[in-house]
Amino acid sequence: MTKFSTLILTGALITGSSAYAQMRVEVIGVGSNQIPIAVAAFAEEGVAPAQISAIIRADLERSGMFKIIEAGSTLSETSSIDYSQWKSRGADALVVGSVQKLADGRFEVRYKLHDTIKTNQLSSLTQAAQPKYTRLSAHKIADDIYEKLTGSRGAFATRVAYVNENRGARDYRLEIADADGEAVQVAVRSNEPIISPSWSPDGTKVAYVSFEKRKPIIYVQDLVTGGRKIVVNEKGSNSAPSWSPDGTRLTVALSKDGHTQVYVVGVDGSGLRRVSNSNGIDTEPQFSADGQTIYFTSDRSGGPQIYKMPVGGGNAQRVTFNGSYNISPRVSSDGKTLAWVSQRDGGYSLYAMDLASGQELRLADAATEPSFSPNGKYIMYATKGGGRTSLAVVSVDGRVKQRLTTQAGNIREPNWGPFMK
């Protein structure tokens, strides 16, 4: 196996120590034209297992789009609002709300968003959730605020999948967490490597590659039932699964015919069909947003570059031309932006390209394994530093950077889940 194919298949597995610790988020940089907003403490929120207002503040701050104005007070959604007071304190918007424990054990969360400039109410929301979902209620409120004030859908209530590994202890875990790194759950645990997690469009399943049978095999894990099934187990290497937008197919990279090529297969393992046909290595396939095109990495030109081709097969067109080593293509949900990793100046950097103009932007250094947020505004990636690998997030304009770290452990291969229904 060549150096290029080994890198793609194994993801350059790194030794580290394992931990179940929650991730800590550090925000570096801010977006342009930050919106000043005050989030008051919610009335009676102490009865809930999660502090709703604190989660909302953290979500908004992490986005880089908001400047948090210290509220210093508790206000419910029924409180009388002195708009001039909040405007004088520099807040263009104000968030208020309350929490009530219901007789059936659920928690009812109410909130209102006020515009202090226009002196009116912008939005309101009432949710009743089981105790374990109170954090989700807070994320949904933050999503509503983000959308009402920026015009784009928020992604705080989404989840991420990633691999947490301790290679020395032969402990590999496919974990699921909230987008802020909290509420971690182990979906799969193995003594052999797990790589390439990929969310289904409906957020109920994750495809991944496991080496538990001493060779790479593609599985689909059902996160609702806990069941799983083998989807592709052909001769040789089975790797790099990625879902079609309609959730009916996977595009995969298989070496069954001697060298790695791109295939499409039904999620039940039926209808396996070869799509690419080259004398090189074709791997890391990704469906386009409309499902009509597959982007992939190929060394057919002498070194790894990004190409695209029709989902039915046919002529492939080269997409990347700058740099001699470009891998890991990812396409935003609106189909407008391509993210990938390029080896330049002696290191691996994350780039984004406007597919209409071909203009490139260098977003982050020491980056691998990118994944778009479902709203297309942010990219999560793996980065190595301090002797271990962790996750980081950067906005598509490069202005906002976040780093998600744990006390220990190698956290890598992130895949950002879809909007929840």
UniProtKB/TrEMBL annotation:
Similarity field: Belongs to the TolB family.
Subunit annotation: The Tol-Pal system is composed of five core proteins: the inner membrane proteins TolA, TolQ and TolR, the periplasmic protein TolB and the outer membrane protein Pal. They form a network linking the inner and outer membranes and the peptidoglycan layer.
Function: Part of the Tol-Pal system, which plays a role in outer membrane invagination during cell division and is important for maintaining outer membrane integrity.
Cross-referenced NCBIfam families: propeller_TolB
Keyword tRNA-binding: no
Cell compartments where the protein resides: Periplasm
Keywords attached to this entry: Cell cycle, Cell division, Periplasm, Signal
Protein name: Tol-Pal system protein TolB
Domain TolB N-terminal: 24-122
Signal peptide segment: 1-21
UniProt source species: Massilia frigida
Superkingdom to which the source organism belongs: Bacteria
